Amino acid sequence: MKKVVSISLFILGLLALNLNIMSAQNATITVAKTVELSADQVWEQIRIMDNIDKLSSLVATVEWTGPKDVGGSRVCKSGDGQGYFKENIVDFSDAERTYTYAVVEGVPTKKMVNNFKVVDMGYQKSLILWTSNFEFMQNPNMTEEQFRGFLSSSVDEMIKNTIALATKS
Asked: What is the Cα–Cα distance from 41 to 83, expressed in whole angstroms?
């Protein structure tokens, strides 16, 4: 039995690695995290979509308009009131545990589209995969390298806080 479980975990690991590599090839940035929670537990938190203020220390308030699905929109504002970004939900699937959102205002990019996906790895494990595609716009406030670092650390924080919320529920 141990051998079957080990082989299954090895295959699941290869699947996760393959998903990460495929996403990394097609994305500007990819963040992947395997967690010791079921995909349903993780997705239950990620699919909320209007709780970014509970997931990110950089967001003080979230204003949601429209459906909690394709066509929904959120404006996330910083605590000092100086910064904000607006996102539109462009794809959503509970069945596939994924949603895609376009960032349409507030960042130094063009055509920014991000995606959260939760992959069931069995044995109460899941893979949280976040990808981002964008064209960086040169500006005096931030280099592209700084922006990439900012995005990666922001998503790491959101994933960490999502895991904490999923563990409590």
From this structure: 31
pTM of the model: 0.82
What number of other Cβ atoms are within 10 A of residue 17's Cβ? 12
Put the strands of the sheet holding 84-93 in their side by side order: 29-35, 125-136, 109-122, 98-105, 84-93, 73-77, 61-65
Q: How many residues are there in the chain? A: 169
Residue with tokens 């790895």: 121
To 5 degrees, how large is the angle CA 120–CA 125–CA 128?
A: 65
Assigned token pair, 107: 């960042």
Read off the pLDDT of residues 23-67 as tens digits, 9 standing for 90 and up: 444 568 999 999 999 999 999 999 999 999 999 999 999 999 999
* Cβ proximity of 166 and 44 under 8 Å: yes
CA–CA separation, 99 vs 84, rounded Å? 21
CA 141 to chain centre: 25
* Amino acid in the structure at residue 23: S
